[in-house]
Write the structure tokens for this entry.
Amino acid sequence: MFPIREATFLALDVKLLRIEAPRIARRREAGQFVIVRVHEHGERIPLTIADSDVDQGTITIIVQGIGKTTKLINMLETGDVIQDVVGPLGEASEVSLFGTVVVIGGGVGTAIAYPTAVAMKQAGNRVLSIIGAKTKDLIILKEQMQATSDALFVMTDDGSDGTQGFVTQKLVELLQGGEQIDRVLAIGPIPMMSAVADVTRPHGIKTIVSLNPIMVDGTGMCGGCRVTVGGQSRFACVDGPEFDAHDVDFKILAQRNTLYRAQERAALESLEADPAGDLEEIRHCRLEQKHPEVGPQAK
């Protein structure tokens, strides 16, 4: 079981959790993720490691409450525990001295982009960051991205923060302004990543995206995270999660992500009808942590 040391909302339905996981904290690299199971009967979902603290033995994840499990995670508070946190999983980001790197984060994708932006800056790159969301209240990690970037551009659909428009508009502006860009990393909704790839393709700029398809075991055994890259099947959990954006079939990716929409909707409705049931599972785990004599091992 993994105790939650901090649970703080960053934006509407977006929560930061700092979790005690010292072995993962020691080994994780930018771009890697964990698979989390909230309680014994919960589903397994992948979440990117946004940050870690080796001295404190903690990792940080940022969760947007959309489906049953993510909304349940966002109900947790400091002192609660998570049943399973497995990782670090996936290939780490390719970090090197490329020159000028543009890091793009759309919505909660900024949490995934942030650790790679930090690593790129530490490697000596000039880092230009573009973060975007529908509105100001959904912008996350603005100060952190500012601190690790040579320049930060904020885009909102409604113009409530930064410049009104999409992240791709700022990318186009940079290119049209003569900016020499050597590499782009884009993380966010599938349509956004696809649009970024369309912008950079004519310029021949290496563009990397981090994919988050349906995933179960995280070891390449289940095949749930299969994606089509360069006309071939790859597994996001072991071959990724980062791939060359110009090779990704975003249409197939979007279709696969909707396969279980009906089941996801039913699960969410079940949680909304009786949130106490799932929360009771979690509170029981917390009880076992403090009093092992009541747990299964005591039987």
Summary: The chain has ten helices and 17 strands. Residues 294-299 have pLDDT under 50 and may be disordered. Residues 177 and 206 are 19 Å apart (CA to CA).
